[in-house]
Amino acid sequence: MNTEKSKQLFEEAKKFIPGGVNSPVRAFKSVGGDPLFIKRGEGSKIYDVDGNEFIDYIGSWGPHIFGHNPSFIKEALLKAIENGTSFGAPTELEVKMAKLITEFVPSVEMVRMVNSGTEATMSAVRAARGYTGKERIIKFEGCYHGHADFFLIKAGSGALTLGVPTSPGVTKGNVADTLIADFNNIESVKKLIKANKNKIAAVIIEAIVGNMGVVKADNKFIKELRTLCNEEKIVLIIDEVMTGFRVAKGGAQEVLGVKADLTTFGKIIGGGLPVGAYGGKKEIMEMIAPAGPVYQAGTLSGNPLAMSAGYTALSYIKDHPEIYNQLEEKSAYLEKGIKENLKKLNKHLSINRVGSMLTLFFTEDKVTDFDSAVKSDTKIFGKYFHEMLKRGIYLPPAQYEAFFISTAHTKDDLNKTISANYESLKDVLR
Ligand SMILES: Cc1ncc(COP(=O)(O)O)c(C=O)c1O
Does residue 144 line the site of ligand 1, with CB under 6 A? Predict the structure, then answer.
């Protein structure tokens, strides 16, 4: 594969951009090698600056549920741009967007648009703190909620010991306020609540996790978590930045039959443009300025171009509920193909899939939480990633991520992926 232009661009980029990229995972650090610079995307394919074509399973890390550059979103954007790019004043589309979101996700009665998933989760936590008058939060080891200081904490050495920052620049105050529980383990949550009685403002969770690879919360666990939050007057924030409008129209909450107090969104909600949102119970959302005292603002929030792409994406979903059957069929076909390959090779690897999110873990053991996820052999994953890339398949360049399948993936794409998977696994699992 010729990657000369990508290599040149990366060398140039490193002089002016930290690490040569604007978001770390793009740099291929966990799989080795240099990133490819992408020029164009169309349907299920992306094309790099050297003219290589790939079947893409990143889909911009989730937003492209209809594949790259769908004509209906492109047309909406071109139409919107005729009227101007930003006003800093309310527009009609923001009202329609908010209404549509509340229609899709029953636990959301009011919603505020922001510009990224991080902004959504950060603001939801502030809302929960303002509403409850309490300061501490509980998050789960292995869940990712963006890069706000108070999320960059991992578990310490024991269940009740202080967490440890995952980045320099995170203050001791943040460490003290973020408590870390084990995913799918209600006892770990109960212990933290008991030791921090009446101090917990919120529990935040990816109810279907994408960020330790795909891991679904047990039905029993999520229901108990809901009950516990009710009993302790803790705001339950379900982070649906990745799962919202992807695993179902109503997100992970629909799949698991649970209702959050606050929900955060990103990715699909922007139709490929930079958008996030947070919403939930009216009595909590009415705490947000200017309705209430909890400050949160944004110069470009509700931006007309972003709203037009996002509203068009969500309207398409509303008018075509069959897309979730299509996604399920395509994704199940891919999963079955990979499983058959493993059988033919007489190997066992763990696969988790929820709808159009799938992770092939390089471990034989079942993956249900962070500890079981990190048993994966990331070195072999790195080799597998490059073998797949060589064969024209662009996977997320990290083990603990999801492959995203879109409605644009054809049977031919999936068959090519399955045979590339067979050849690649044969090479790396000797
Ligand atoms: C579940 C979840 N929450 C929050 C975020 C942060 O979103 P953003 O990257 O738009 O800030 C992500 C990003 O991948 C995510 O997967």
Answer: yes
